[in-house]
Amino acid sequence: MNIPYTVEERPDTGLANGKLGIWLFLASEVMLFGALFSAYIILRVGALEWPHGELSIKLGAINTVILISSSVTMVMAWASLKMNEWGKHRLYLTLTFVLALVFLINKYFEYSAHLAGGEGPSHSTFLAIYFTLTGLHGLHIVGGMIVMGYFLGPGSKMWKTSPEQFANRIEYTGLYWHFVDLVWIFLFPVLYLL
Amino acid sequence: MHPDPAEVKKTVRRYFMIGAALLVFTGVTVAANQFHFVVPVAITVALIIAVMKGSMVAAVFMHLSHERRWIYGALLLTVVLFIALMFMPLLTMLEHIGTPLDALRAAGGHAGR
Q1: Backbone angles phi, psi at A172, to 5 degrees
Q2: Residue A15 and residue B68: Cβ atoms within 8 Å?
Q3: Domain ranges (residues) in chain B
Q4: pLDDT in tens for each of the 194 residues of chain A?
Q5: Phi, psi at residue A162, to the nearest 5°?
Q6: How many interface pairs between A and B have CB atoms less than 8 angstroms apart?
Q7: Of the four listed, A112, A140, B40, B110, which is most buried by Cβ atoms within 10 Å?
């Protein structure tokens, strides 16, 4: 049995089902991170003093550069498929995966430095919200890597049987990945600079 | 949307340009932080740059600049609810539970009378 509207657009929405599905999922993600940003505002406004300069701006900026670069490689992975350039698609998707891994390694060093100094989430309100926000964001990075790993491995077979559907799947993965980048674009100034 | 290969080829350069612009804006954000503005100004500057960067990612990388009506509808609802969520902390200021009665009277509150 074939699932309808995986490639062709539905006449009523003008969209393939996957596209509408991923956008609704991203809408729920906006509310999830929004709730945590809202919690951050409450905690910050209610705090008598708020630490400044506790996080390494250098590491945060490097991670921002890494995620922005990964967004470019991700969109290029999709564009390469649309231009029928399989080799380039593999290269760009692998690059995105590697950049995500480098982001997590960076984060590991950052977390380790804090934890080694006894600065865990229970140390202060700031660190509690820092670990919660960046931890949740890190889990999203891991989720994205799992999906990319699937499309670099067993999932790539679909390119031969249904190239349009495969390109759509990469597009949806890209939409998720750009959202993860977008969240970091706000997390960086809020946690590291302000 | 199903853009054809020729159309996609034209946008490739744009993707790299936007990527470069995002990196420049990241540099500007970090540089602005060196000026040690007072907190309200620092927050405003940082958030304006973040909104600009976020808009570029959404418009170009996520193709929101030319999407279907249904996507815009879903996102409009999300934006409305997100803004409501951001203003939720204001409600905590209206909440008087736990405030000593004397403090409420001094602030001009009715103190439950």
Answers
A1: -65, -40
A2: yes
A3: 1-67, 68-113
A4: 778 888 888 888 888 899 999 999 999 999 999 999 989 988 888 888 888 888 999 999 999 999 999 999 999 999 999 999 999 999 999 999 999 999 999 999 999 999 999 999 999 999 999 999 999 999 999 999 999 999 999 999 999 999 999 999 999 999 999 999 999 999 999 999 88
A5: -145, 80
A6: 122
A7: A140
Q: How far is CA A29 from the centre of its chain?
A: 11
Judge whether A64 and A184 are in contact, CB under 8 Å: yes
Radius of gyration of chain A (CA): 19
Residue B8 one-letter amino acid: V
Instruction: Please give, rounded to a whole number of angstroms, the shortest distance from the CA of B5 to a CA of chain A.
Output: 5
Domains in chain A: ranges and CATH: 17-47+56-193 (1.20.120.80)
Structure token pair of residue B15: 């993707």
Give this prediction's pTM: 0.90
Residue B72 CA: distances (Å) to CA of A141, B32, B65, B67, B77: 26, 33, 10, 7, 9
User: Are residues A21 and A176 in contact, defined by beta-carbon separation less than 8 angstroms?
Assistant: no
Task: Please tell me the distance from the alpha carbon of residue A154 to that of residue A156, in angstroms, as a whole number.
Answer: 5
Number of H helices, E strands in chain A: 6, 0
Contact call for A178 and B57, based on CB within 8 A: yes
The answer to whether the beta carbons of residues A49 and B14 sit under 8 Å apart is: no
Closest-CA residue in chain B for A29? B78
A12: distance to nearest CA of chain B, Å? 10
